[in-house]
Design brief:
Blueprint: E1 11-14, E2 17-20, H1 31-34, E3 38-46, E4 49-51, H2 53-66, H3 75-89, E5 94-101, E6 118-125, H4 132-137, E7 139-147, H5 164-175, E8 180-184, E9 190-192, E10 197-202, E11 205-208, H6 217-229, E12 233-235, H7 240-244, E13 248-253, E14 257-264, E15 267-268, H8 276-287, E16 295-297
Parallel strand pairs: 7-8, 7-14, 11-12
Antiparallel strand pairs: 1-2, 1-6, 3-4, 3-5, 4-16, 5-6, 8-9, 10-11, 10-13, 13-14, 14-15
This protein binds pyridoxal-5'-phosphate (PLP).
């Protein structure tokens, strides 16, 4: 008899099959691999429920359209596949990724229009962008001199795998002893880091960059939370020197929500502890996970 499949480390959806994550592989000839020609989105499951699934699906549909990719599935079908990945894994908190790749054109052709686009998905245990110690004490981030790829080259508002700038920046920051990195635009404004947006608090106002970055669902959640808490919000260019002098700094990402930053380059932020606005937003972020407006329970028995 075959050994039972081990789904508890995660589940991948590949070419119509659900497989243990360790066996989830794409063909080497898929342009998703050969050209980074793909788009994706990440939604999280917390306490057995998707958080803001509709917002992630909206963005995934928009990203696909932007890159002229077609997953050949509607939102209901995508939701069913993602739910089934989670259900098979049994995970109550999970990092769930949906991906659409170019696929491959017929042999000998280099015409992307002839490629059959492919849809992949996986659910793995929840991935935190910051560990427990970093969430408690705050991260040390460095502002890199690596410039984020300009919007006129690759539209940063549609998710993509053009990450070499982010990865090289991250390697530089890690080598220098920091925890993560922020990239700048052509005129020295900070834009974003590898998989997260950035915020700071200046004179009581919550400030975040306006352009040159992916518009995170978590970023939107922070802006909405600030609104509901009566905190003023400024969406505008954010020069690196203002970040270093801010009263508070934090990151937003599906990989853990609101994450405090207590050091930027060599500057200690505030008193070196996560600030009061950051802490309030962390609490509110997790409280919103139980709001039925944003949370969609998964039926683990279906
Ligand atoms: C996904 C992503 C983010 C954060 O988006 P969330 O929806 O909040 O997780 C920020 N920047 C980049 C480059 C990303 O890919």
């Amino acid at each position: 008899m075959d050994a039972p499949l081990n789904f508890s480390d995660g589940v991948g959806f590949v070419r119509g099959e659900y497989v243990p994550i360790a066996d989830a592989a794409i063909p080497m000839t898929d342009w998703g691999f050969l050209r980074s020609d793909a788009t994706y989105d990440v939604v999280t499951v917390w306490d057995g429920a998707f958080f803001r699934l509709e917002a992630h699906l909206d963005r995934f549909v928009r990203s696909c359209a932007r890159w002229r990719l077609d997953p050949h599935l509607d939102r209901g079908q995508i939701t069913e596949i993602l739910s089934r990945c989670v259900r098979l894994s049994g995970l109550r908190s999970s990092y769930v990724e949906m991906i659409c790749t170019r696929g491959k054109p017929p042999w000998g052709s280099r015409d992307p229009r002839l490629a059959v686009n492919q849809f992949y998905a996986f659910a793995v245990p929840f991935i935190w962008l910051a560990n427990a110690e970093q969430r408690e004490n705050g991260l040390h981030v460095m502002v890199s001199d690596v410039q984020r790829i300009p919007p006129s080259s690759v539209d940063p508002s549609a998710k993509n795998y053009h990450w070499n700038d982010l990865t090289m920046g991250l390697l530089g920051a890690l080598d220098a002893g920091a925890d993560s990195v922020l990239l700048v635009d052509g005129v020295g404004n900070v834009v974003e880091g590898p998989g997260f947006n950035v915020f700071c608090v200046i004179d009581g106002a919550v400030v975040t960059p306006a352009e040159g970055m992916l518009e995170g669902v978590s970023r939107r959640t922070v802006i909405e939370m600030a609104g509901s808490l009566g905190l003023p919000v400024q969406v505008r260019a954010l020069p690196a020197h203002q970040l270093r002098c801010a009263h508070e700094v934090f990151l937003s990402t599906s990989g853990g929500g609101v994450l405090p930053v207590t050091k930027v380059d060599q500057s200690v932020i505030g008193n070196g502890r996560p600030g009061p606005v950051t802490q309030l937003l962390v609490q509110t972020y997790w409280a919103w996970h139980t709001d039925p407006a944003y949370s969609q329970p998964i039926d683990y028995c279906a």
